[in-house]
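Whiteboard transcription, Tuesday session. T.W. wrote the structure tokens on the left side:
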């Protein structure tokens, strides 16, 4: 059974943009669309002024209206709706993501040149979800996915470290007829980080920059083979990963980053690179988890 594209809906312009983005993606991938609402996302004025029955009815009406609007734009798109129980900690959305191809959420933007404001629920969902989560801002529209705009994806570490993010980027680009721009940022290691083994690898590669280019090429090789029709641009640059990705993604239609799906002593973490791009990217951002 195909996993649906799922979107969280709360009545805000941001969630409307996320639902519209999810509908377009569902059509491109020939997948059903699922719209969900959790009680925690009710407007504060409604929570204070209405009883539980009225709140539930408002949620059902919101989902029905969103479904109607999207069905008009995309005839033939299969759309289901669900009102989920309020758990107070994002767990309902994390559970919804578990059964989805991806989960799309809206996020408030700082402005036209700055990215996303993440509430506590959004942070918990991104950190805890085992499936990709896409953040979409109000104002994001279909023209932003026009041909000529790349799907930008960050690659780091060994090939397996970014395999899931690369797979997501290539699959998305294939569905959109877009180009993938794969980015690997690197920095000069401190002197004490050098070891005889690392120096030998660098010598074999001809230096740091050729080594980084080879590492990116090796990570991309299996994706190029699986998606031969997807054009690819390889980009290596010295600098912090977040800053390099943001500079490259200035005119992207989607930015894809990975996140290690593991829990630390202080709980699940988004990761520094994902955190940086989520707060400053001008386009939708997909955070793709992977396990060590």
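and on the right, the sequence the group agreed on:
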């Amino acid at each position: 059974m195909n996993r649906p594209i799922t979107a969280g809906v709360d009545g805000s312009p941001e969630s409307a943009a996320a639902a519209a983005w999810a509908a377009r993606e569902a059509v491109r991938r020939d997948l059903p669309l699922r719209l969900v609402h959790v009680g925690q996302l009710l407007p504060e004025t409604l929570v204070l002024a209405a009883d539980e029955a009225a709140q539930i009815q408002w949620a059902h009406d919101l989902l029905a209206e969103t479904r109607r609007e999207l069905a008009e734009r995309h005839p033939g798109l299969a759309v289901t709706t669900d009102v989920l129980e309020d758990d107070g900690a994002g767990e309902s959305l994390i559970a919804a993501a578990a059964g989805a191809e991806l989960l799309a959420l809206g996020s408030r933007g700082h402005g036209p040149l700055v990215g996303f404001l993440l509430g506590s629920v959004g942070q918990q969902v991104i950190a805890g979800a085992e499936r990709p989560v896409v953040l979409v801002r109000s104002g994001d529209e279909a023209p932003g996915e026009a041909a000529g705009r790349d799907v930008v994806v960050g690659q780091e570490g060994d090939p397996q470290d970014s395999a899931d993010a690369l797979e997501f980027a290539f699959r998305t680009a294939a569905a959109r007829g877009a180009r993938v721009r794969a980015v690997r940022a690197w920095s000069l290691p401190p002197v004490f980080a050098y070891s005889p083994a690392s120096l030998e690898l660098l010598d074999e590669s001809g230096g740091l920059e050729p080594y980084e280019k080879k590492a990116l090429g090796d990570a991309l090789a299996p994706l190029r083979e699986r998606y031969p029709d997807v054009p690819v641009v390889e980009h290596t640059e010295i600098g912090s990963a977040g800053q390099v990705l943001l500079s490259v993604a200035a005119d992207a239609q989607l930015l894809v980053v990975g996140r290690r799906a593991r829990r630390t002593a202080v709980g699940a973490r988004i990761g520094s690179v994902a955190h940086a791009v989520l707060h400053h990217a001008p386009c939708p951002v997909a955070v793709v988890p992977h396990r060590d």
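Someone added at the bottom: The chain has two domains: 5-140, 151-290.
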